[in-house]
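Quick illustration, no need to memorize.
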Amino acid sequence: MAIVTVFKNQHGNVNVALKSGAVVPFISGKFWTEKAALAAELMQAAEEGEFGIYVDSNEHEIDTEFASPMDQLKKKFREEHLAELAAQGKLVDGGTYDGGGTQALQASAASTTDIVGAETLTAEQQATKDAQLEALKLGADQSPLAKLNALKQAQ
């Protein structure tokens, strides 16, 4: 999740022993590190042209989150897809889902009086509310199908 310098080696897959004694493995001719001291030594070697090390002007930095070629392709495809959806006006923020469940249903049923007002609930609305709350209490340990049947019977 950090932006680091990518060092390349003209010899491809090779291990390079630096002056400090550190051995740097270039895989597919590339190497990156988050260690500042090692990066500084590699930069010095690249500037002096030692051991075939250089910094490519086309690819001089990389995000460590997308370090592998597959991660880079995924990022590219994701960005292209999101741009395409945005251009078509189909990019929709779906929001978040908190799980809801019976607590949300109970809160919704309990808040009916707040929304509608206790005095304006019809007898049918009150009966439905009571039936739903009772079915939830009775069906707490039942399967979803049993809960559905309990709701149907309560109506």
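Residues 3-71 form one domain.
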